Amino acid sequence: MLLTLDLNDARPLHEQVAAAVRRAIGEGSYAAGDRLPPARELAQALGINTNTVLRALRDLRDEGLLEFRRGRGVSVAGAAGGRALLVQRTRELLEDAQRHGYRREDLITILKELP
Fold first, then answer.
1. Which branch of life, at top level (predicted)?
2. Which of 10, 25, 31, 32 sits between 20 and 30 A of 75, alpha carbons compared?
3. Residue 78 confidence (pLDDT)
4. The CATH number of the domain where 51 resides is what?
């Protein structure tokens, strides 16, 4: 799993990790039943604390995307539905818009203007 984090991103690291894993599942890099690398390996690869990765994985478990099995590690419970991926991308769009001085209402107006 090749994940990257944006050190300039204002979001907490665990949210960035969760978003990256969610995106990898949504884009098909991982299918239902596939095992993820251990949290310690992910943390080392990203240069962050293992607890940060574990928090992200727990969030994804709570969303129903991951399953934790004792002795078998973490595996993908199911593919990220189109809605989950769309919500993630919308959050990223909103954050990007806010960095450029736009409000949520401005984005809604822009979306309504699109064909």
1. Bacteria
2. 10
3. 65
4. 1.10.10.10
